[in-house]
Amino acid sequence: MALSRSHRVTMNDGNTIPVLGFGTIGPRSVPKSESEMATKLAIEAGFRHIDGAFLYQNEKEVGQAIQAKIADGTVTREDIFYTGKLWSTCHRPELVRPALEESLKTLQLDYLDLYIIHSPISFKPGKDLMPMDENKKFIGDSVDLRDTWEAMEKCKDAGLVKSIGVSNFNRRQLEMILNKTGLKHKPVCNQVECHPYLNQSKLLEFCKSKDILLVAYSALGSQREAPWIDQQSPNLLEDPVLGAIAKKHNRSPAQVALRYQIQRGVVVLAKSFNEKRIKENFQVFDFQLTPEDMKVIDGLNKNVRYLTLNIFQELPNYPFNDEY
Question: What's the rounded Cα separation, in Å, for the pair 238 and 248?
């Protein structure tokens, strides 16, 4: 992965993406106004890649932060790389463009740099983002994701988004898109949970073979928010092996976990609402892990997922039944 001086890499469509991104998802306990403040701090710290989503319900605040930093001269629109996500209630082809246009309006942007299908699991369309029946079971929708992808391609062709990709897809689901008849634009990326305890080495190898970037979320472990996060999962940043490597380089375990991904050719997202940690998370371009460090961190893999989506297991296109 050849890094430019602006810490960007080129995607398979010729556009570039910053290898380090700021994740804007926040726990329910955090007021939405803090998303605006954190995004401003991230841009001031040097982050240019902002990762958002309709599901996070804070695109208004994140958009206000971006507009404020453009207005005060910190950045131009061209400096910012914004990722948005198509939520699962909008997989039907006729709903894709309206969903994107709604995000653009909320963000006060003319285009997105990247728009990705948030999850291969389709939900019943409607205002309810997690539709359930009277028995508290999620209501899925039967959609061919190849049709959804065609609608994404049309959004790119219309200039509403520069690049298109996917998230939480397994190898089989990626192949379904790649082998689709009449494919016009390949996915530029697949955004998945990825960290030293779940290093996704097989999926990474597959994506590299297809010139698709892997983008890592939960790269520092995850906040313990029930019911989405396994409450029994180990705390990544307290791992003694990671701690020892961090001490050797006079860095934090978080900086080592982020640097690990960049060195293995993964675009990595860091999220925090703490000013000190936001600044610290950007300081990963002035040190290098040794091949031995990389090998040791590879050895931490336990195939542990923080994000537990077992509640969706009965729905079509559930991605985590396959090996990768």
Answer: 16
Residue 13 has pLDDT above 80, yes or no: yes
Element (H, E) at 41: helix 32-45
pLDDT for res 221: 87
CA distances from 94 to 36, 137, 170, 182 (A): 31, 26, 25, 19
Token pair belonging to 276: 């000190």
Spatial distance between the Cα atoms of 10 and 228, rounded to a whole number of angstroms: 33
Token pair, residue 174, equals: 């990626």
49-89 pLDDT per residue, tens: 999 999 999 999 999 999 999 999 999 999 999 999 999 99
Q: What is the pLDDT of residues 220-273, one digit of tens each?
A: 987 656 556 666 778 999 999 999 999 999 999 999 999 999 999 999 999 999
Rounded to an integer, what distance in angstroms lies between the CA atom of residue 99 and that of residue 89? 10
Q: What pLDDT score was predicted for residue 1?
A: 64
* 132 bridge partner residues: 138
The three-state secondary structure class of 61 is: helix
Amino acid found at 238: E
Number of H helices, E strands in the chain: 10, 10
| DSSP summary character for residue 123 | B
| Direct distance between the N- and C-terminal alpha carbons of the chain, in angstroms, rounded to an integer | 22
**Catalytic residues, which ones?**
56
Residue 159, helix vs strand vs coil: coil
Q: How far apart are CA 246 and CA 242, in angstroms?
A: 6
